[in-house]
Design goal:
This protein is mainly alpha-helical. The chain is built from 9 helices and 2 strands; from the N terminus they run ααααβααβααα. It is globular, with a radius of gyration of 18 Å.
Length: 186
C-alpha cells in the first residue's frame, strides 16, 4: 500500500505534532492533558484546516475505530482534492462518542468533510503500521510486545509507538547526562 505524497508528508507533521503534545518541559507524559486542551481550542483551530490540517487532526487522536481497512487504504491512495464524502467514508469507521460533538463542529465548516477524511487517514496511518510508508529499520514488532499486545502506559491504556519511543529517548538522554556527571532529573 502506497499512500499519496500528501498523506506521506502530512503523516510526518502529524506524528511530530503528537510528539510535541506528549511531554511537558519537565519530561512528564502529558499527552491526554494537552489533547484535552487542544480539543477545547477547536473553534479557533478550524480556521487553520487548510493551512495546517495536522494541527486540527490531532483533536481526533484515538477517536476512530476502523471497520473496513480496505476503504482506509483506498483513502490513503486518493489525491487530497478527490476524497470521498464523509457519509461514504463514515461507513468504513465509527467515532468514539466523545468525538462526535467535535466532528459535528468540524462538519459545519466549508472544508469540514475534507478535514475529517484527513484526520481519519492520518490516525489510520498512525495506528496501523501496515498503512505507513516503509522505512528502513521499521518493524511491526517495535510497537508490540511478545504477546502481540501494545504495551500499556502509566494510565493502563495502550501506549502507542510514538509515546514509547519518546519515553525511550528521554531515558537514553537522561542516562547520557548522568554518564557525563550531571544529576539525574526526577
Amino acid at each position: 500500500m502506497h499512500p499519496t505524497p500528501f498523506f506521506s508528508d502530512l503523516r510526518k507533521a502529524y506524528e511530530a505534532e503528537l510528539h510535541d503534545l506528549s511531554f511537558d518541559s519537565d519530561g512528564k507524559h502529558v499527552l491526554k492533558k494537552h489533547l484535552a486542551e487542544r480539543r477545547k481550542e477547536l473553534p479557533f483551530l478550524v480556521q487553520m484546516m487548510a493551512a495546517s490540517p495536522e494541527m486540527v487532526s490531532v483533536v481526533f487522536h484515538q477517536a476512530f475505530h476502523f471497520l473496513r481497512p480496505e476503504a482506509m487504504h483506498q483513502l490513503l491512495a486518493t489525491e487530497a482534492e478527490s476524497f470521498p464524502a464523509w457519509d461514504e467514508l463514515g461507513a468504513a469507521l465509527t467515532l468514539e462518542p466523545w468525538a462526535q460533538p467535535l466532528a459535528d463542529a468540524v462538519l459545519k465548516e466549508p472544508e469540514g468533510e475534507w478535514l475529517l477524511a484527513v484526520a481519519a487517514g492520518l490516525e489510520f496511518m498512525h495506528s496501523h503500521p501496515s498503512a505507513r510508508p516503509a522505512r528502513s529499520g521499521d518493524d511491526a514488532s517495535d510497537s508490540e510486545d511478545e504477546d502481540g499486545d501494545k504495551p500499556d502506559g502509566d494510565d493502563g491504556e495502550p501506549e502507542d509507538a510514538d509515546e514509547r519511543e519518546a519515553r525511550e529517548q528521554e531515558a537514553a538522554g537522561q542516562a547520557w547526562m548522568e554518564s557525563q556527571g550531571f544529576d539525574r532529573k526526577e
